[in-house]
Amino acid sequence: MTTPLRSRANMSASAPEPVASGPAGDAERAARARIARDIAELAAIARGSATPGEHAAAHWAAARLRELGAADVRVTHFRYRRSFAQAHALHMAAAAGGALVAAAGRRRAARLLGRLVAGAALLSFELDYSGRRQFARQLPPAGEGASVNGRLGEGPRTLVVVAHLDAALTGAIWSPVLLRAGDAWARRSGRRASLALLPELAMLAALLGGRRALRSAAGALVGFAALVLECLRHEPVPGANDNASGVAAALELARRLSEQSLPATRVEVILPGCEEAGMGGMAAWLAEAKGKLDPARTLLIGLDTVGSGEPIVLAAEGGLWPVRYRPEDVQLVRRAATARGLDPPRPWRLGAWTDPALARLAGLPAVSLLSVRDGGFPNYHRPSDTPDRVDVGCVLRCVELAEAVAREWAEA
């Protein structure tokens, strides 16, 4: 398979920060170098969801896992959409149509029908956004996604390490100007409003508003749908922070757990594709693993966008209908950090999605580790998300945090 490579410009990760001298410093420098190399190599692959580039990234990651001594390494395939844009725009258009019917209807039945259509569109949108139920998961143009599975060790307990392979399409919806207000609020509160908040509010207005509000909501929803679809014109971003950093962190964590295994624990490393399109690879893996994992003996750790600056742990994520993580799992992360001399990460409410949300919906204990800077993700879904802008020190801190959580859980 031909690997779609990007320009080699901006491929080196951020310059190493000063580290201690002696054996500990040598080990840290080596870890930073491995992480920087993996980020640069993966960011060089144009790996949009369900594209040949995602397949190339999967084969690259499979080779890296084999180098680390993982067993049963395989690349799996599944059918999924290439972007969330068509499905989300379809929901917005349906809600806009319902609003117009309700606004123009002279009979009570017509007005009620329009509002019901808008309400159904909002409900279906929330189901799709959260991953609870995706009726449009294979909406054309669909493609074949690729994920990677590998195993370390054996035992009655299962630790699952997850980091998605694919990179997002850029577009006007990811303009820093549009994200600035939400980032500022999140910086103060640790709560990031839904990235789809404005369309969600417009759909609510289509369901509940008066006649004037219905017309305004319809116009706004048509505009939002056009804005979302605009991203289909673009190529995938390098995705160095989101999420080559997470994959590099997962590989470094796998190295550590291979060198010093967890007691009585099987480690599954899952690198799903199609997360950016709506968590398609994670859904496919969970469908295969369903019934094989005992929630009482399983923990899933997600690593996503971990090179921003400040490690965080998610307490909840999603749109108006969020997926919430178990408080005891969030506390496990903070307790493990404290026990091993690390800074406990702040609990965070994310207005988007990460793969561990589907594990929670499936009833599995899970934690989702990310990082932020100034309330947001630097260069989020932008062409400027290049390796030289990744905080490698933050990636390493997230690896140390994930390892602390894994050992605290396994030794409990």
TrEMBL record:
Residues 237-403 form the Peptidase M28 domain. Residues 1-27 are annotated as: Disordered. SUPFAM superfamilies: Zn-dependent exopeptidases (SSF53187). Pfam families: Peptidase_M28. Residues 1-13 have a biased composition (Polar residues). It comes from the Bacteria. This is Peptidase family M28.
